Amino acid sequence: MSDMQLSVSDLPHIPVLIEPIINLISPVSGSWLDGTFGAGGYTRALLEAGADNVIAIDRDPHVFDLAKKWISNYANKIQLHNDKFSNLGKYGSSFDGIVLDLGLSSMQIDEPNRGFSFIKDGPLDMRMSGSGPSAADLINTLPEIEIANILYFFGEERSSRRIANAIITRRAERPFVSTLDLSNVIENCLPRKKPGASHPATRSFQALRIAINNEFTELYEALFAAEKALRSGGILAIVTFHSLEDRIVKRFLQFRSGFAGNSNRYSPELKSEEKHFEMLNRKAIVAPDPELLENPRSRSAKLRIAKRLSSQPGPNLLPSQLGVPLLEGKYNA
Ligand SMILES: C[S@@+](CC[C@H](N)C(=O)[O-])C[C@H]1O[C@@H](n2cnc3c(N)ncnc32)[C@H](O)[C@@H]1O
Predict the structure, then answer these.
(1) pTM score, two decimals?
(2) Hey, which end of the chain has fewer CB within 10 Å, N or C?
(3) Could you report the per-residue pLDDT of 90-131, keeping only the tens digit for each?
(4) Would you say domain 3-107+215-322 falls under CATH 3.30.390.30?
(5) Is 326 helix (H, G, I), strand (E, B) or coil?
(6) Which residue has the higher pLDDT, 42 or 332?
(7) Conformational region of residue 81, where left means phi above 0, alpha means psi within -120 to 50, and beta covers everything else
(8) Domain 3-107+215-322 and domain 130-212 have a common topology
(9) Which helix (H) or strand (E) holds 232?
(10) Atom of ligand 1 nearest to the CA of 239
(11) Cβ(278)–Cβ(234) under 8 Å?
């Protein structure tokens, strides 16, 4: 069986929401940038749908070994770069489309040695790129208030102070080294989990991962870089996995398509600036039922997709205008 005929269950990472993306942008052609290559599911789908070539970026050096198995099937149509997507402007200035499928791949989540899992034990790492301070470095050194702020602002964890206090108390005895070590301390300081509720460490692990990988700043910078790197008529498609990152993408596209959005659901939408993008979907697109059944990880995914209109990029927007939660510290390299 050739690699192109692999069934979904054989894939190391099942691409999320790729069918609606391809349907909305068809016919696909020209030069694309995939800022989150992962297992290459988006890159392959774009090429199969008619893209001439794809420049693919990932900050995780491990993804490139996996790609060696199949990349020759696409001759010279894929160029891989180990980089952050905030640097995407280095790779071109008139792309026909840019896709970002944010967050972690299944390979990263499922491999305990990467330190993202609160279910399987591994080193407390969480670095997508493998360099810079690890989650253990942060947890073992930051002041209590900074840990609490990370958990609250990056994970919307309501028990942030209680968890930060439990962490500080425990680390005074011995430092944290493993993921289960941390998730047990979190679990033990919170009320017993209700049946069906998510694991008590879910929000804290999300928050730490965001801090370690500087994910909000990456996204904020990538939005402006993508706007500059798209030709007029080019497509920007972004898939997010939690409400904080969806809010940033939504507000950016609202501003750029002539609406500032509403600060709460009862106030009217405000006209903001000239149109630089046209949203192809006003409401985020979520995974259809068959995709949810096949891939439970698609349940929190949201797709926003827009077409670049004017040749001039819009004015700068402050992080606060896009709802980017920013903390004092910069926690990664
Ligand atoms: C959800 S996976 C993408 C999966 C991919 N679309 C596929 O179908 O196989 C996200 C990938 O983006 C990478 N990534 C996350 N943030 C990044 C950033 N700021 N710059 C570059 N790559 C990033 C991660 O390392 C991971 O491999």
Answers:
(1) 0.93
(2) N
(3) 999 999 999 999 999 999 999 999 999 999 999 999 999 999
(4) no
(5) coil
(6) 42
(7) beta
(8) no
(9) strand 230-240
(10) 1
(11) no
